[in-house]
Input
Amino acid sequence: MGKRDARNGRRGPGDGFPGPSVNELDLPKLRRERLERLQAAMRVHGAEVCLFFNQGNVRYATGSAIMTVYSMSAFVRCALVPASGRPILFEHPGSLHVSRRIVEDVRPMTAWEWTDDPSAEATRWAKEIVQAMRELGVTARRLFVDALGTAAFLALGREGIKLVDPGRIILDAREVKTPEELRLMEHNAAIGMKMLGAFEAAVAPGVRERELLAVITDTLLREGGEYLITRACVSGPNTNPWNLEAGDRALERGDLVFVDTDAVGYEGYFIDVSRTFLCGVTAATPAQREMYRAAYDWLARATEALEPGITLADLASRMPRLPGKYLSQRYETMVHCAGLADEGPSINYPQDQQPNGARPLREGMVLCLEVYVGEPGGREGVKLEDQVLVTAGGARVLIPYPFCDTLLGRK
Output
């Protein structure tokens, strides 16, 4: 794995990892190129217009994001996107002035949730959507919608609108990143390096899991990131099985401690890397070294297997195999994409159903390769993950945080 193989001594949060500065990013170009990709995919699929409530899709189409966590749990803003021309953003009335800095056509959103008569309010909203479709020159009665509440679904039906799933459109548009998206992800890679450096520096006996979670959250926010999508920071017996979240447990000397950054960074782009550390100055146990080596070797071979042009089903069959004793607790997927979210397409283990098997691996995809190693009933487990860019010559690791010499048996 080259220069990022393993560290000698601790790294601090200020590693000086290079990445484009905010001033070097061309956000208008970023937004323009994303919209072009989306609208090209819409035309391929015969979609005259899409309606997005998913906030990643709204941001991809318009560049606008406001109150993101709240907006993910309530129908308070949406984007109506034609196959050509400018989108219309229906915005929370108190945030119109914010989105108008970025989006040309911003209109107040009519909300139906939490009202005594949601049907009436949803009807008013649906009529506004249909009128906007006419203004955009849409002639079809088909509307590609990613998410919708019941009252609004019924209201659009009363207006004679047929709803269609835009999932393939979104997947086709977002699976390959534009050059400006990649520059933005490199900027966020530097944030990821700082998050992991701060986390590792804070690992010590007596520190509680939630305090470590606070460390990476603090670093993310101070560097211009937005929020975490999970609280994946656990230690000792909480590392097996995988998928527990940070709690009040205090770290003990000799514990395995792992973190999955699962962070939404600057301008909404995903920082997704996992590392496992050893708590305290101590020797690793044989079991800890065995698990870590199995995870490390799997990740190295999986990275080497990435080759543009191969189908994801073929790639799944070529991926390294986990030792049998760890297989029943395998992670839910081997590979998924990253961008404005934890995205598809993805690659599952060979014995599992492939959700995107016919799709080819393409240059410009950003992948997250992740592996969990832990025996059923064991005390601990190891989680490792890298975020990589697919290039003509293979994969390039975007966030090359070093691995642990002690757990690799090198120290």
